[in-house]
Structure formats: C-alpha cells, structure tokens
Amino acid sequence: MHIYLMGWNWKHPDTLAIERPNGHFGLQVIVVRSKGRLVMGDKEYRVDKNTAFVVESCLPHCIYADGEEYADDWIRFSLDKEDNEFIESLNLEYNTPIKLKNDSISKLISAGTDIFNSDITVKNEMLNYILKAILCQLSEYKTSGTKKNRNYYDKALDKIKKDIYSNPSDDWSVPNIAEKLNISVSHFQRLYKKRFGVSCTNDVFISRMQYAKQLILQTDYPVKEIAYMCGYQNYEYFSRSFVKYACISPTQYREKFKEI
C-alpha cells in the first residue's frame, strides 16, 4: 500500500461545499469529526461526528458542512496487487457510513500525519503498519443502519469484482459477463453499480491502471509491452488512459517515481 496524502483535523467553515464529480484516484478513508452531509455516488448521508467512510477509487462524491464548522481526518492511498488478499479478508463495506465508538482511528491518523511529514528513513514501512491498523479497526465496526438485503446475484458479482482485480489483463467484456449471468447488459450494469457504487467498466479501468503502475515501478518492461500485459492492444489508447488515471504519461510516471 502507498499513501499519497493524509490530513488530520482539517477544519472548514459551515459553508463548505466540496464536489468531486470524478472522485479521487486511489482509496480514501475519511473520518468525519463534526456533523456533515456526504454524497457517495448516488446516495446521500447526514452523519454525526466520529463517522468514517472507506471510499472507492474514482467514486464521484461530495462533502458539505451541515449547519456547523466541518472537520475531518483523511487518507488517500493505493493498493498493490499483493494487498488484495489482505483487503478482501477485512470484508470492508465501501462508500457507506461506519459509526465509530471512539476517536482511536483519529489518533492513529494524527500519528501517521506526523510521520508522513517527517524525514524518517523508514516512514513508508511505518505508515503501512498504521494504515493496516486503521483498516483492521474499521473492519471491526458495523456499518450504520440496517443490514443490507443480499441480492440473488450478489455472490456472483462479488466474484466478478474479485476476478477483475486479480486478472486485470483478461478480456472483461460487459456483454460477455452479462451473458454468463444470463441477464441483459443493462440489468447487469444496474446490479453492478448498485452493489459497488461504481460501474464494472470503471473497475476494469482501475484494476488495469493499478497493475500498470505496479509493472512500471517494479519491472523494467518497456511501457509499450506493459500496455499489452494490461489488456490494451493499442499503446496510444493505453497511454491516454494512464494520463487520465495518473495525470502524467507512463514514461513520466516511471521517471518520477521509479527511484522513490
């Protein structure tokens, strides 16, 4: 896991309105320390202090103050392929409010922020342990509200999502997936979006970009070969997709982060 940014006890006026129609790259943990109104995908939540969200990558979301000064803690991070098994073992629920029992996660984020802003040689390893501790603690809490009713297709959808992230280079054709489930494309797309808050196409995109990032930083394969390894037959299309994901080209990404 790699932490990109983090903040502790960020305060905003009661007029706060942050709208992110394209979400943020990478997963997020948000701990709301005041009242707040948060929109995750197409669902809106009014929450009290000590409420957390684990937000999926690129999920459209908005954050608004709710009649008072707004404050939160937050972490933005990405996963490497080897982190998938750990994350799956936690059974986290994404994009929904998690009511916390105390401020222990805020204290961990406070400690992590100090380390993140330091020059400690082993800070990446230390941050990794802190992040894992935060995610493990979040997995222990029950999400607010009533237990979700499982759809007939939920088990199959869960497997599809897991397979997408385990094998990003496969040909993940939405019509082919829908055909295997014996449902229409439109029905599959509605079920997938309802289940995970993002489209299947978006998950395929993110899984391939995460895999590309891993190959770019951890191997010496030419970037054109990496494009094919990630399921892209056209390098120019892969490069445009990567720029959309990381804001810089694959070659620039390697030059900037390879030695970090």
Record field, number of beta strands: 9
Gross morphology is globular
Distance between the termini: 14 Å
Strand content: 15-25%
- DSSP summary: helix tally: 10
Largest sheet: 5 strands, antiparallel
Give me the secondary-structure category.
alpha+beta
Helical content, roughly? 40-55%
User: How large, in whole angstroms, is the Cα Rg?
Assistant: 19 Å
**How are the strands ordered across the major sheet?**
1-8-3-6-9
Mean pLDDT: 88
Any descriptors?
260 residues; five-stranded antiparallel β-sheet; alpha+beta; 9 strands; four-stranded antiparallel β-sheet; 10 helices
Task: Tell me about this structure.
- The protein is an alpha+beta fold and 260 residues long.
- It is 45% helix and 20% strand.
- It is built from ten helices and nine strands.
- It has helices spanning 84-90, 104-116, 123-140, 154-166, 174-181, 185-196, 200-218, 223-229, 235-246, 250-257; strands at residues 2-12, 17-20, 27-32, 36-40, 43-47, 51-55, 61-65, 70-78, 98-99.
- The strands form two sheets. The chain has a five-stranded antiparallel β-sheet.
- Helix 2 (104-116) packs antiparallel against helix 3 (123-140), helix 4 (154-166) runs parallel beside helix 7 (200-218) and helix 5 packs across helix 6 (185-196).
- Mean pLDDT is 88; it is low at 143-147.
